[in-house]
Design brief:
The chain is α/β, with parallel strands linked by helices. Helix content is 22%, strand content 29%. A hairpin with a 5-residue loop joins strand 18 and strand 19.
Length: 364
């Protein structure tokens, strides 16, 4: 027997789906994701904490789940909605269904939604906080929403990762400041022959320097980068002292550490088909992205008094937003997209190469 699923925001805008599931009502920032594959990677990406995903692809879960594809050890989304979820899988790689997996971790999900209408609504009105429930009244969901944790000021990146507070045998490895790092980043480093260590974001700059790392990656992660004051302060102290590469949230953290501005986007970039133009690369890169904040335009000839000239070297070809900064004098750079291709094309992997060159040059 189908039940009515209700999705509502603080202004009373309602959308309805239908489901056979029973789940506890929840809240989160509603965003839409345009990827047509990679739903296991998306659902397990820590960057989606405190978010409800609206999948624009028609059938979610049709090829099932394989643990190799997971970006963390469990689903990290607040909830997920779609036109339909597949309870049966049809792939030789499948170890389980996505629906079983979500139920195991008590993650709310529901099909039966008009995702095209919801996506058009978000593109017109912007992303915002929503509540999702089943067999529940609008009044009860609005009460829940009133006390919800908002995405603005959300500092959940501090606890989103899996790093321990003690990092032994870090010398000579690449450190990943773990703000909710995806496993794909570690896989890329391993494929290039580097060992890595996850670093708790509560570590101080002095502690990180004492690890004697080859270089530092500032990882992806959830929430509002502007709320991570201690992390920003730490990175500001590290710039110029070791090679640094920022990815997604890490790009925003590096930018904030240099005095640049980061602001909330209307509905963000969430998908695996975003074209990016990178200076020095002839063809546009088709990239995977997941972010709701963006670095504001950098003034021409912008020079930081301590770190040197800061260049914007990559832009999103959809809307012209910043997709990367370079601080050549301080051996630091970043990208807004996900170069590790989990999910997405392999176009962006080449963006790791300057980081590896920085490591070799600084070691030399």
């Amino acid at each position: 027997m189908y039940k009515k699923a209700l999705l509502i925001n603080e202004h009373g805008n309602e959308f309805y789906g239908f489901t056979t599931e029973s789940f506890k009502a929840t809240t989160g920032e509603l965003i839409f994701n345009t990827a047509m594959t990679g739903f296991v990677e998306i659902l397990s990406d820590p960057s989606y904490e405190n978010q409800i995903i609206c999948f624009t692809s028609s059938h979610i879960g049709n090829y099932g789940l394989n643990e190799i594809d997971m970006e963390s050890n469990k689903p990290r989304v607040q909830a997920a909605i779609a036109n339909s979820f597949s309870y049966k899988t049809s792939s030789w790689r499948s170890q389980d269904s996505v629906t079983n997996w979500l139920n195991k971790y008590e993650i709310p999900f529901s099909g039966g939604f008009d995702t095209r209408m919801i996506t058009k609504f978000l593109r017109t009105n912007g992303s915002s906080m929503f509540a999702l429930g089943v067999d529940i009244t609008s009044k009860d969901l609005l009460k829940l929403l009133k006390n919800a944790k908002n995405i603005i000021g959300d500092n959940s990146a501090i606890t989103a990762g899996s790093s321990n507070s003690v990092n032994k045998n870090a010398e000579g490895k690449i450190g990943i400041l773990d703000l909710g790092s995806k496993r794909s980043i570690e896989k890329v480093l391993n494929n290039y022959g580097y060992s890595s260590v996850l670093i708790n974001p509560k570590k101080t700059s002095e502690e990180i320097i004492n690890m004697q790392l080859k270089g530092l990656i500032i990882s992806n992660g959830p929430g509002d980068p502007r709320a991570l004051n201690a992390v920003i302060k730490c990175i500001k102290s590290l710039i110029g002292k070791l090679p640094i590469f920022g990815i997604c949230l890490g790009h925003q953290i590096l930018s904030l550490s240099c005095g640049l501005e980061v602001n909330k986007m209307e509905f963000g970039h969430h998908g695996s088909n975003h074209p990016v133009r990178v200076t020095g690369i002839e063809n546009a890169l088709i990239t995977s992205q997941n972010h709701g904040f963006a670095v504001e335009a950098i003034p021409k000839n912008f020079k930081h008094e301590k770190f040197g000239e800061i260049l914007a070297y990559a832009i999103n070809l959809y809307d012209g937003t910043n997709q990367g900064i370079l601080i050549e004098d301080s051996n630091a750079y970043s990208v807004q997209f996900h170069p590790e291709a989990g999910p997405g094309t392999n176009d962006g992997i080449k963006v790791f190469e300057p980081f590896f060159k920085m490591i070799k040059d600084s070691n030399a």
